[in-house]
Design brief:
alpha/beta; Rossmann fold; 2 domains; seven-stranded mixed beta sheet; two-stranded antiparallel ribbon; 15 helices; 9 strands
C-alpha cells in the first residue's frame, strides 16, 4: 500500500488525472502490486511491460494514455546517464541498424498484410477528403510523386523502401526506373515476390558504392529517418546528396518532434524500434545545412493519428482470428499503436514532408497538396 500511495502522490503532482482502481473508464485497474515497483524504476518500461504482462488494465486505454502521457510528451530532457551514454556511443552503427530493422520488420508478414493497405504502406497516409485507408495511402503516394515531379525514364532511389509499395506505384504510374534500399531480408523477399521488384538492394545507404554517385534523378525516403539516430543525421543527408544529381529533387517524409532528443523512449527502444528516435526542426536544419536548398516543408501530423487508428482496428480484428501471436505480443502491439496515436493527437509528434534540391530549382517549386 505504501508504494501505491507514493505512485498516487507522484501522479497528482504531475497532474495526471488517473485513479488507481477507480470507477471511471480511463482509470487504471492494478492486478499485481509488483507493478508499482516497476513503475518507480522506469515510468516508460514500467507502464509498458506492466500492461504487456497483465499487471494492469483499463476500460479506456486511449483515454488513460492521453492523461498519463500529456505531462511528459513535451519534455525532451534525457537523464544524465543517458545523455553521457549518447555522447560516447553511436546507437546506429551499420550492424545495429541491420539488427533494428530485423527486430521490427521481420516479425511476420501476415500481421502487416492484415493491418496495411494493398501497397503495404507502413507510414503515414494522407487523409484529405478521403474515408478509407486504401484511398489515403494512394493519396500519400500520389502526393509524393507530384512533389518529385516524376517523368517517364527518370532514375529514382527509395532509401528505406520497406515492402516496396511506393516503388511499385512509381514504376507503374509514372514509368520510372526504381531502386530501393532495405535492411530487412523479409521485406526484400516480399518486394520481389509480391511486386516483382528485383532492384531492391539489401544495403545500408552509407555503403552504396561509388558507381551510384550522382546517378539518381530523384531520391525519396519515407519513414526511414526515424531509424537513423541523431548522430547519423548528417551522414544521411550527405549520402542523399552524394547519390542525387545536381538538378535532382529529394523528398523526405519523417515523423518529427517538438524538441531535440538524443535518446529513445525506453519501452519503444526495447520492444518496437530499437535505437529509433524522431528528429526536431533544429536537428534537421543542422544536418542538411550546406547540402540542400529547402523548397517546401509540409506538416500534416493529424493524418498519422487517423492512420494509426485504422491500423489498430485492423490489427485487433486480425488477432481475434489467429493464435500465432501470444496475448503479451498483442498487448504490446496495441499499446504501441494507441500510444503513438495519442502522441499525434497531443501534437507532441509531427509528420513532415520536406522537398529539397541540391542547388535550388530555378523559380522555385509551387506548394503541392
Amino acid at each position: 500500500m505504501q508504494l501505491q500511495t507514493i505512485i498516487e502522490y507522484l501522479g497528482r503532482r504531475k497532474g495526471i488525472d488517473v485513479r488507481i482502481n477507480g470507477d471511471r473508464p480511463h482509470d487504471i485497474q492494478v492486478h499485481d502490486p509488483g507493478f508499482y515497483r516497476r513503475l518507480l524504476r522506469s515510468y516508460s518500461l514500467g507502464m509498458g511491460e506492466g500492461y504487456m504482462d497483465g499487471m494492469w488494465s483499463t476500460g479506456d486505454l486511449e483515454g488513460l494514455l492521453r492523461r498519463c502521457l500529456q505531462p511528459f510528451e513535451r519534455s525532451g530532457n534525457p537523464s544524465l546517464l543517458s545523455a553521457v551514454q549518447h555522447v560516447f556511443f553511436n546507437r546506429q552503427t551499420l550492424l545495429k541498424s541491420t539488427q533494428a530493422a530485423e527486430h521490427h520488420y521481420d516479425i511476420g508478414n501476415d500481421l502487416y498484410e492484415a493491418m496495411l493497405d494493398p501497397y503495404m504502406q507502413y507510414s503515414c497516409a494522407y487523409w484529405k477528403d478521403i474515408e478509407t485507408l486504401e484511398e489515403a495511402q494512394r493519396a500519400k503516394m500520389a502526393l509524393i510523386c507530384r512533389k518529385l515531379r516524376l517523368q517517364p525514364g527518370l532514375a529514382v532511389l527509395d532509401i528505406g523502401c520497406g515492402f516496396g509499395g511506393l516503388m511499385k506505384y512509381m514504376r507503374d504510374e509514372h514509368g520510372v526506373h526504381v531502386t530501393g534500399l532495405t535492411l530487412s531480408k523479409e521485406q526484400q523477399r516480399f518486394a520481389n515476390e509480391r511486386f516483382g521488384l528485383d532492384s531492391v538492394l539489401f544495403c545500408d545507404y552509407r555503403k552504396l558504392d561509388a558507381r551510384y554517385e550522382h546517378s539518381f534523378d530523384r531520391v525519396v525516403s519515407v519513414g526511414m529517418l526515424e531509424h537513423v539516430g541523431y548522430k547519423n543525421y548528417p551522414d544521411f543527408f550527405r549520402s542523399a546528396r552524394r547519390l542525387l544529381r545536381d538538378d535532382g529533387i529529394f523528398v523526405l517524409q519523417t515523423i518529427g518532434g517538438n524538441v531535440s532528443v538524443t535518446r529513445p523512449d525506453d519501452w519503444v527502444d526495447r520492444y518496437i524500434f530499437p535505437n529509433g528516435m524522431t528528429p526536431s526542426i533544429a536537428q534537421l536544419g543542422r544536418a542538411m545545412e550546406g547540402l540542400f536548398v529547402m523548397e517546401d516543408w509540409h506538416s500534416f501530423g493529424p493524418s498519422y493519428a487517423r492512420t494509426l487508428d485504422a491500423w489498430h482496428h485492423r490489427s485487433q480484428v486480425f488477432f481475434r482470428g489467429t493464435d500465432r501471436y501470444p496475448p503479451r505480443f498483442q498487448r504490446m502491439w496495441e499499446l504501441y499503436l494507441v500510444g503513438s496515436k495519442v502522441a499525434f493527437d497531443l501534437r507532441s509528434s509531427q509528420l513532415w514532408q520536406l522537398v529539397l534540391s541540391p542547388r535550388g530549382v530555378p523559380g522555385g517549386l509551387p506548394r503541392v497538396d
